[in-house]
Hints:
Layout: H1 5-8, H2 11-18, H3 23-30, H4 34-41, H5 44-55, E1 57-59, H6 67-83, E2 100-103, E3 106-110, E4 115-120, E5 131-136, E6 142-148, E7 153-158, E8 161-162, E9 170-178, E10 193-198, E11 205-212, E12 215-222, E13 228-234, E14 239-246, E15 251-254, E16 259-265, E17 274-280, E18 288-290, E19 298-301, E20 310-317, E21 334-336, E22 342-351, E23 354-363, H7 364-372, E24 381-383, H8 385-392, E25 393-397, E26 409-410, E27 413-419, E28 427-433, H9 436-444, E29 450-453, E30 456-462, E31 467-469, E32 478-480, E33 484-490, E34 501-506, E35 511-515
Parallel strand pairs: 14-18, 19-24
Antiparallel strand pairs: 1-21, 2-3, 3-4, 4-5, 6-7, 7-9, 8-9, 9-10, 11-12, 12-13, 13-14, 15-16, 16-17, 17-19, 20-22, 22-23, 23-25, 26-27, 27-28, 28-33, 29-30, 30-33, 31-32, 34-35
Amino acid sequence: xxxxxxxxxxxxxxxxxxxxxxxxxxxxxxxxxxxxxxxxxxxxxxxxxxxxxxxxxxxxxxxxxxxxxxxxxxxxxxxxxxxxxxxxxxxxxxxxxxxxxxxxxxxxxxxxxxxxxxxxxxxxxxxxxxxxxxxxxxxxxxxxxxxxxxxxxxxxxxxxxxxxxxxxxxxxxxxxxxxxxxxxxxxxxxxxxxxxxxxxxxxxxxxxxxxxxxxxxxxxxxxxxxxxxxxxxxxxxxxxxxxxxxxxxxxxxxxxxxxxxxxxxxxxxxxxxxxxxxxxxxxxxxxxxxxxxxxxxxxxxxxxxxxxxxxxxxxxxxxxxxxxxxxxxxxxxxxxxxxxxxxxxxxxxxxxxxxxxxxxxxxxxxxxxxxxxxxxxxxxxxxxxxxxxxxxxxxxxxxxxxxxxxxxxxxxxxxxxxxxxxxxxxxxxxxxxxxxxxxxxxxxxxxxxxxxxxxxxxxxxxxxxxxxxxxxxxxxxxxxxxxxxxxxxxxxxxxxxxxxxxxxxxxxxxxxxxxx
Length: 516
């Protein structure tokens, strides 16, 4: 009788072959036969690969931990986030420097002594030790900054000054320094300062600063009638990759290291139209161009609004930028999947005397699937709302989150702090998770629509329903159905005399509650 190949190969070799498969193929192999199921279920490396995919994580190949340790840590990590059971708490005093940042597991706060104090946030599960250090900015008038711990990069923006030769223009200096030492970054050009001048008519500017691999993007937001600008540099060479200028330039975010997402409003005569433009940085030359004239790759069109609706602004939040990996010195067993990120896009509009905002939740890979499905000659392609919106997003009036403490999203999670309807000092923490693999796995385990503890619902599922927006802002009703799960936990009452928590920030390992 002829023996099957699987009875000839050593079991170790079969496992090696399995380790070369993606998680979907592994799940299929588990259903082939009893032997395959037993081998996969009993192998820590294979179970770890499956758990990574389900959790929306990626392995850190530089970690010294073995697969059994990584698997156990990943399961503890998932359990902790799935029930909002934290392992430790700590109070961190808020400094009064007025600028701050949270990125890559590092919380940075400026003080009144021209110093930025950095704190690497700890994690018992991923075995990250807390580390605190400071960098002086006494040689400049700091206006804003951002960080990228993976590249040891600190990007400082000096307060804009009038150009010496052209006093009608504001000149901004962007300093590139080491996050750990505060000195010039060794990979930055010499001098390690990027400069940009803003056209006449601008008196006051605010900034959005983002880093994605070799690119630094600065959104110069004008608070007058003058147009806002977006400049993207290759920070290692100093070369401008993009110089965009438009009054409709409202928000920015890296979609990938070469695709830029820009939020703006169209000039429709019959209705107000919001759009998300995708710009291909590899096709830009750094010369000044308007949003109306740029050769954008594609645009995602929002549902139309009535013509009497006044567009006010956009905000796009996603964390981390893609692609992102932990620093090379990090020993963490795993980190967030750089290709699976939630974008929370807030649109602000006015009608009459009323201001209202709407949040659009969408996964980055959904947008990329449309972008990458275009042919090479299909630039300036507009995707209608019906093409991309109803099945790939959730659109709703904005749940509670701050326009100031904006780090409320990480990976596929969105954090919100809900104040009590009848008791002002009662706060409920909510974490919404849009990870599709995790939702499917939990549903396969028989999870019901609501899980309760002592008659209090702590987990709520939204994977077989839709959100309906019926509002005077939009021309028609809007239904969206991107699946997500909500985990809730009531927070303890504040100490006597305290006014309670105001907002919540979210990072890979931590939830940070902002006291008032």
